[in-house]
Design a protein that fits this description.
Blueprint lengths: L1 H12 L7 H35 L7 H26 L2 H7 L3 H19 L9 H23 L12 H13 L7 H28 L20 H14 L3 H9 L4 H30 L31 H25 L5 H4 L3 H11 L1
């Protein structure tokens, strides 16, 4: 896939658009985009399979539990990456869809909840306490997801924010952190995972309600502006994903055998989350700089007049990279104000004697007019 992506990229860079290339180029662009979007997912799965195979995990009776941890943990990390993309470079796309972010979040939560409702229990066997917990969690997801979809639009059809996905994240953290475990180290790690996921849901609620005040971005004129508080939720989702992937039965048995403290293990997992967050931000910054440079005249994320929320007027540049443009605009505005002040000071001076001398003929006309 990587070699195919490189070949397609070189072909598109040549800009061959005459003859048969005119028809072929369109399909190559579509294929190039699909492969590019699938490559991170395939790479992640390949890395997980490599680590599982090298360590000999997920065999025999551990397969089901291992799959649940790695799939769910990867889902939390993927959700954090999506939030990071929307925060840094995705507001323009979100505006063009005419939907709020919670619409897509709730739609995904509903679909995931429906799958969990019917797959967490092995039908034909007795129900266990774990089956009850996982199935009830799936029911909560699709119920809350349907409500979030309904609340994502106003009566007039305009997109609006809501808190349903954040509440689902909070409840999921509380429920999954309370699962009974066989080992003490596993209990503590699951509890930390639950607290971290609950913190992600709580910070999301605070972000929407108090930081953004139900808006899509912190700055109306520049939708890619971000507040430092907004980075908390994605990071906590990264950390939650790694904590859950690192809490399988086999991994907990290794920790117990080597008498490793749960604190040290959790700090290592948090460190990996920090590095992944850094890597994602670096990739997005590289993408924004190459796709939407500051000096590009026709920025695809530029807002026209009366576009955006509440008639916003301004230019949006990816990833908050409009700082230089704002400084340049401010300097131009200061120069115009300086020239205007100079003109006003000249006009407000005392009139010269030539303006005070009124001809007698004009005075006579004025008196005649009053009479």
């Amino acid at each position: 896939m990587l070699a195919m992506q490189v070949v397609f990229g070189i072909y598109l860079k040549l800009h061959l658009e005459k003859g048969i290339h005119f028809h072929v180029r369109r399909y190559i662009m579509i294929t190039h985009g699909v492969v590019g979007k699938a490559l991170p997912v395939v790479s992640w799965v390949q890395m997980l399979f490599g680590a599982i195979t090298a360590l000999g995990f997920c065999r025999r009776d551990h397969l089901g539990q291992c799959l649940a941890h790695f799939i769910m943990g990867s889902s939390f990390i993927a959700y954090g990456i999506v939030l990071t993309i929307l925060l840094l470079v995705g507001q323009g796309w979100l505006r063009r869809t005419g939907r709020s972010q919670e619409f897509f979040d709730s739609l995904l939560i509903s679909a995931w909840g429906c799958v969990n409702t019917f797959t967490e229990h092995r039908w034909g066997e007795n129900w266990s306490n774990t089956d009850y917990q996982h199935t009830s969690m799936g029911i909560v997801w699709w119920c809350a997801g349907l409500l979030g979809i309904w609340l994502s639009r106003t009566r007039s059809g305009r997109p609006q924010r809501n808190l349903m996905p954040a509440i689902v994240i909070f409840l999921t953290g509380w429920a999954m952190g309370s699962h009974p475990q066989h080992l003490m180290v596993s209990t503590k790690i699951h509890a930390t995972f639950g607290y971290t996921l609950m913190a992600a849901g709580l910070t999301r609620i605070i972000e929407i309600s108090f930081v953004l005040r139900d808006r899509n971005s912190i700055d109306k004129r520049h939708a890619e502006e971000s507040n430092s508080f907004q980075f908390l939720t994605p990071f906590l989702l990264y950390a939650s994903g790694f904590l859950f992937m690192g809490a399988t039965e086999e991994q907990m048995a290794i920790l117990a055998e080597n008498e490793m403290s749960h604190v040290s293990y959790i700090l290592v997992l948090y460190s990996i989350a920090f590095l992944l967050f850094l890597f994602v931000c670096m990739l997005l910054n590289m993408y924004a700089n190459s796709a939407w440079p500051l000096d590009k005249p026709n920025n695809p994320l530029a807002l026209k007049k009366d576009d955006g929320e509440n008639g916003v007027i301004g230019n949006v540049t990816a990833g908050g990279l409009h700082l230089q443009a704002r400084v340049r605009d401010r300097r131009m505005k200061d120069a115009e104000e300086f020239e205007l002040e100079g003109l006003m000071s000249d006009d407000e001076g005392e009139p010269g004697p030539e303006l005070l001398d009124i001809p007698a003929s004009m005075e006579g006309r004025k008196e005649t007019h009053h009479l």
